[in-house]
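Q: Hi! First time doing this. I have a protein sequence and I read that you can turn it into a structure. Is that right? Here it is:
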Amino acid sequence: MTTYAALLRGINVGGSKRVPMPELRDVLTGLGHTAIATHLQSGNAVFRSDSEDEQALAAALEQALHERFGFAVDCLVRDAGYLAAVADACPFPAAELAGKQLHVTYFDRPVDARRFADLEAETFLPEEFRLGDRCLYLYAPDGLGRSRLAVALGRPRHVKGIVATTRNWNTVATLVEMTRD
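A: Yes, that's right. Below is the predicted 3D structure, encoded as C-alpha cells:
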C-alpha cells in the first residue's frame, strides 16, 4: 500500500464547484481507497491505495467526481515520497517564513524553464520563483493575494496545456505530515 495526497484544483472557491469534504471522502472510499483523511475545504485528501500509478489514480478520481457532482475537477495525485522531496528541496528558507509567504504550485508534468523565460525576474523583486520537480516554488512576502509575480506566472502563455494547483507552505507541510507512514 502506498500513501498518496490528492490535490484538487479550483473547488470550493467563491461558491462554485462545491465539493464537501465528507463527499470527497465518500468518493475516495468508493474507489476502493483506505485511510482517507481530508485537510481544509480546498481539495486536499490523503489516502492509501494498492495502485502505483499516480496518473491512473488521478484520472479515476476526476471521473468519479464528474459523475458525482456533474462538473470537471482537475486532480493531481502525488505519493508521500514526492511530497516530502518537494518540501526538502525548497530553495527558500521555509523555516524562517510565514506560511502565507511561500507557495508550491504542483504541475501534472515537468515544466521547462523556457516556459517562463519572458518574465523579467528583477521587476518582481522581492518576489521570486524557482522551478523544481514538477513544481514551482513562489516566495511572495506580502502573500499570494497581493503577488504581482503570481499573476504573471498564471498567465495563459505560462500555464497553457498543463494542470497546475497551488498550496501555501502550511498546507505543503501538513500534507507531508499526513502522508508519513
